[in-house]
Amino acid sequence: MSDLNQLYSEVIMEHYENSPHRRELKDATHKERGHNPLCGDDITIYLKMNGDIIEDASFTGHGCAISQASTSMMIDLIKGKDKKEALRLVQEFIDMIHKKDVNLDELGDAQVLHGVSDFPARVKCALLAWKTLQEIL
Prior knowledge:
GO terms for molecular function: iron ion binding; iron-sulfur cluster binding; transferase activity. By secondary structure, the protein is an alpha+beta fold.
């Protein structure tokens, strides 16, 4: 395994095992469940919106390391952003997974998931939270 792959694995496992966002948001203004019945990934995303600003966000649920880490990384990225910017980042992430040209730096830790596109069975895992957020917004 290359050093880069090792680093990516460490980032994914850190988000999977120690996400500070894994909690129910008691004062959430929006809540949406996303699940993939084929693999068992099941998440609920909580948002606290103040107008168009995402003041806080969290998630609960279970699933594979990719789905859970992707959810945590997404929340890191969208907290404090307005709805329009969050939707733009969601589209950037989806484009990255579909191997389109994107500015990876904008995606923070989530850019480590770009290799998921080489594993079609894992694409839905990586996209679950992002598609769920798209539905909420």
